[in-house]
C-alpha cells in the first residue's frame, strides 16, 4: 500500500516528502484514502474540519466505534512512514480481520487526521485540535502559510467551508476508543512493536529578534544593532540550557529580513521547538531564552499519559511469543495525544525504527516489522471489539 503512494509529494533529488496540508500532494493522498475505503466497501466521509473517516459499520446506528488511523501529511523533506504507516496498517488490519471472518461487535473506522505536522500553517494537529475544540476556529482560519494565504482562503479554494470549522461533538461522539499505530521516531524500541505510555509536553514558540538594517561594510561595529547576534546567542543557549534542564530544544526554522548577504538584518524570526518529560523545565527553558526577543507561543500540548488499563491490555494483546509488548514514552506529538487529552480512551502502537531517523528522508521501518505492526493492530482491534471469528 505504501508503494502506491511513494511518488506523491516526493523530491526525486533527496527522496524526501513534502505533503503540506491541502497541497496538491495532500489532495492526491486524500483521494487515495477515499479510494481505499471504497475498495473495501467502507463508508467514507470528511468531517467539517477536514478529517477523513472510513467506517465499517454505522456508528449513528450501532453507537461509538473503535477508530484507528493516523495522518497522511508530512513535514518538509519528511520520510515515507510518519503518518502513512498508521493509515495503511489500519486498512490492512481490517483486511486481516475480514479474511478471518471476524465480526466486530461495534463499528470500526479508519481515520486520517488533517494537517498533523503543522508544516504549512505552523500549528500541529490542526484537524484533531479543531475536532476536540482546543484550537479556536477563528485563530485557525487566520493562520497563514509562507505565501501569505490564510487557512480560510486555502480551504475555500479547495471547495471546503471554513465557516464550519470548530469543535464537532457529533463526530467525536462516534469515537469510543482511538488506537494509532505509528513508526517509532527514536531508537528506544528494540522489539518490532511497542506501546506508548506517555507523550512529553511540547510546544512551538516564535522568536522575533528585532534590529536595524544597515550596510554590512560601512557600518562600524559600535553603530550596529544586529539581531542575528541575539539569535545566534539564543541558539547556543537553547542547547546548553536544554542539556542543563534535561529537555530537548531546537531552532529548526529561521527567516531573515531583508535577507541580503551584504546587509545587517532588521529582523530575524526563528521557531523554537521545546519538549521534555517535565512541563516546568520546558517552560523554564523558554523563559530563559526569551531575553532580547518578542516571544509568541504558537502551540502548546500538555503532557499526555495514555489510559493505563487500556495500554496494559493493548501491550498484552500486541506482544509476541507470550510476552507483552514493551511500553515506552515518546518525545513526538501525535493526534492520539490530542484525543487522549479530550477524554477519549486512546492507545498507541509503535513499529520499530532501526536507525531512529525521523522527519527526514532516511526514516525507515523493516517490512517485516511493518507486518508485525499490522498483525498486532488487528489483534488489538479484535480484542477491543470483543466478537469472535
Ligand atoms: Zn506522525
TrEMBL record:
Its cofactor is Zn(2+). It comes from the Bacteria. Coiled coil: none annotated. Keywords: Hydrolase, Metal-binding, Zinc. InterPro entries: Amidase_Cbmase, Bact_exopeptidase_dim_dom, Peptidase_M20. GO terms for molecular function: hydrolase activity, acting on carbon-nitrogen (but not peptide) bonds, in linear amidines; metal ion binding. Allantoate binds at residues 204, 262, 275. Belongs to the peptidase M20 family. This is Allantoate amidohydrolase. It comes from Herbidospora solisilvae.
Amino acid at each position: 500500500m505504501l508503494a502506491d503512494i511513494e511518488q506523491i509529494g516526493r523530491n526525486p533529488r533527496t527522496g524526501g516528502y513534502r505533503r503540506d496540508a491541502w497541497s496538491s500532494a495532500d489532495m492526491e493522498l486524500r483521494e487515495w484514502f477515499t479510494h481505499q475505503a471504497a475498495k473495501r466497501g467502507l463508508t467514507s466521509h470528511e468531517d467539517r474540519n477536514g478529517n477523513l473517516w472510513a467506517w465499517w459499520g454505522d456508528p449513528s446506528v450501532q453507537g461509538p466505534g473503535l477508530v484507528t488511523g493516523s495522518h497522511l501529511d508530512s513535514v518538509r523533506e519528511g520520510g515515507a512512514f510518519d503518518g502513512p504507516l498508521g493509515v495503511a496498517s489500519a486498512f490492512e488490519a481490517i483486511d486481516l480481520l475480514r479474511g478471518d471472518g471476524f465480526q466486530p461487535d461495534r463499528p470500526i473506522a479508519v481515520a486520517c487526521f488533517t494537517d498533523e505536522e503543522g508544516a504549512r500553517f505552523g500549528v500541529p494537529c490542526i484537524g484533531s485540535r479543531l475536532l476536540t475544540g482546543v484550537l479556536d476556529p477563528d485563530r485557525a482560519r487566520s493562520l497563514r502559510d509562507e505565501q501569505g494565504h490564510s487557512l480560510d482562503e486555502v480551504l475555500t479554494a479547495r471547495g471546503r467551508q471554513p465557516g464550519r470549522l470548530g469543535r464537532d461533538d457529533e463526530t467525536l461522539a462516534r469515537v469510543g476508543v482511538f488506537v494509532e499505530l505509528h513508526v517509532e521516531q527514536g531508537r528506544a524500541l528494540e522489539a518490532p512493536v511497542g506501546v506508548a505510555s506517555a507523550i512529553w509536553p511540547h510546544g512551538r514558540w516564535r522568536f522575533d529578534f528585532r534590529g536595524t538594517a544597515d550596510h554590512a561594510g560601512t557600518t562600524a561595529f559600535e553603530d550596529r544593532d544586529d539581531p542575528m547576534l541575539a539569535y545566534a546567542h539564543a541558539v547556543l543557549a537553547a542547547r546548553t540550557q536544554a542539556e542543563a534542564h534535561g529537555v530537548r530544544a531546537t531552532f529548526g526554522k529561521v527567516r531573515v529580513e531583508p535577507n541580503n548577504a551584504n546587509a545587517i538584518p532588521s529582523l530575524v524570526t526563528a521557531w523554537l521547538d521545546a519538549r521534555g518529560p517535565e512541563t516546568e523545565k520546558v517552560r523554564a527553558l523558554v523563559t530563559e531564552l526569551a531575553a532580547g526577543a518578542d516571544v509568541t507561543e504558537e502551540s502548546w500540548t500538555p503532557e499526555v499519559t495514555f489510559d493505563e488499563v487500556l495500554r496494559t491490555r493493548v501491550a498484552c494483546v500486541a506482544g509476541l511469543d507470550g510476552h507483552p509488548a514493551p511500553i515506552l514514552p515518546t518525545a513526538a506529538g501525535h493526534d492520539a495525544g490530542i484525543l487522549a487529552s479530550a477524554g477519549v480512551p486512546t492507545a498507541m502502537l509503535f513499529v520499530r525504527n532501526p536507525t531512529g531517523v525521523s522527519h527526514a528522508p532516511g526514516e525507515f521501518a523493516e517490512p517485516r516489522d511493518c507486518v508485525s505492526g499490522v498483525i498486532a493492530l488487528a489483534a488489538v482491534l479484535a480484542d477491543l471489539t470483543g466478537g469472535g471469528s
